[in-house]
């Protein structure tokens, strides 16, 4: 555990720095962490309302069964839990919120900061002990987190050294139905049909991988001044739960699920990519 703590100190001091996330978040209370449940969930001992679980919003750590019968342990789940323990157990943290503050399970949804301003989500991502996982009602500072995740993946840290968490190509998605995946490929065609946008990655939409954007998602794109039809011909990275509908499919509930990947020195075309998260390899 001390090794994880040392690694966090080293990573916090070096590597690509995230922009200050506090500008996009609102501050909550401070409390001590009395238990770490897994790599993205802790229990706080709050002075007024007593113990409360907190889900580290924006992260998906490798999963433990946690009482679920026949649930398989994801690779590095125990290591992820140990890493989070080394960062926060028996330490005071301050909660910051960027969206809904509580989930349907009664857990607080927060970004955690240690004394001195160290961002716990940043530490877990830099160690490769979690990946970015945003929601339609909680998607603040996604761009900052993607930058940190990308650096860890490039260095093959933690989960990024394992095939279980590898980026998938569109052709590989059929073998991973029912799982959360990050898929990278080129959009061959984008079309709007009956109020829904389809991003197709193959020539036959009946069998190939597709990303769908329902009407509620399109309104979010519109609010941000983005046009998902402009993704045609672009290479993108999309993350979400794979479903079987014709071929394999991810239904995007918010724009931050999609990263646009540009060539190293490509100009950003304002009418085509404005407002998207632009990743430069």
What would you note in describing this structure?
The protein has 281 residues and is an alpha+beta fold. It is built from 6 helices and 16 strands. The protein is 20% helix and 31% strand. A hairpin with a 2-residue loop joins strand 1 and strand 2. Helix 3 packs parallel to helix 4. The longest helix has 13 residues, at 142-154. The protein is globular and about 55 Å long. Mean pLDDT is 88; it is low at 1-18 and 263-276.
The top-level CATH class of the largest domain is Mainly Beta
End-to-end distance, in Å? 33 Å
Please estimate the helix content.
Answer: 10-25%
**Shape verdict:** globular
Report the oligomer. Answer: single chain
Number of strands: 16
Fill in the keyword field for this structure.
281 residues; alpha+beta; OB fold (Dihydrolipoamide Acetyltransferase, E2P); 2 domains; five-stranded mixed beta sheet; 6 helices; 20% helix; globular; disordered N terminus
Brief digest:
The chain has 281 residues and is of the alpha+beta class. It is built from six helices and 16 strands.
């Amino acid at each position: 555990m001390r090794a994880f703590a040392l690694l966090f100190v080293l990573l916090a001091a070096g590597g690509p720095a995230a922009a200050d996330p506090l500008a996009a978040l609102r501050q909550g209370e401070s409390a001590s962490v009395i238990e770490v449940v897994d790599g993205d969930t802790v229990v706080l001992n709050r002075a007024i309302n007593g113990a409360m679980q907190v889900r580290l919003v924006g992260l998906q750590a490798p999963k433990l069964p946690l009482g679920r019968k026949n649930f398989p342990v994801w690779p590095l789940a125990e290591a992820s839990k140990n890493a989070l323990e080394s960062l926060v157990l028996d330490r005071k943290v301050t909660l910051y919120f960027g969206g809904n503050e509580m989930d349907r399970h009664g857990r607080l949804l927060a970004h955690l900061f240690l004394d001195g301003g160290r961002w716990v989500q940043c530490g877990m991502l830099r160690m490769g002990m979690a990946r970015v996982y945003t929601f339609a009602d909680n998607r603040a500072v996604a761009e900052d987190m993607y930058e940190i995740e990308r650096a860890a993946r490039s260095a093959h840290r933690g989960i990024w050294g394992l095939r279980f968490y590898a980026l998938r190509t569109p052709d590989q998605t059929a073998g991973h139905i029912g799982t959360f995946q990050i898929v990278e490929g080129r959009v061959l065609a984008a079309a709007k049909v009956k109020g829904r946008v389809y991003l197709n990655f193959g020539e036959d939409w009946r069998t190939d991988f597709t990303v769908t954007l329902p009407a509620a998602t399109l309104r979010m794109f519109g609010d941000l001044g983005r046009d998902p039809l402009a993704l045609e011909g672009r290479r993108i990275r999309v993350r979400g739960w794979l479903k079987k509908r014709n071929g394999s499919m991810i239904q995007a509930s918010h724009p931050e699920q999609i990263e646009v990947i540009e060539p190293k020195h490509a100009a950003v075309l304002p009418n085509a990519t404005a407002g998207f998260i632009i990743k430069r390899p």
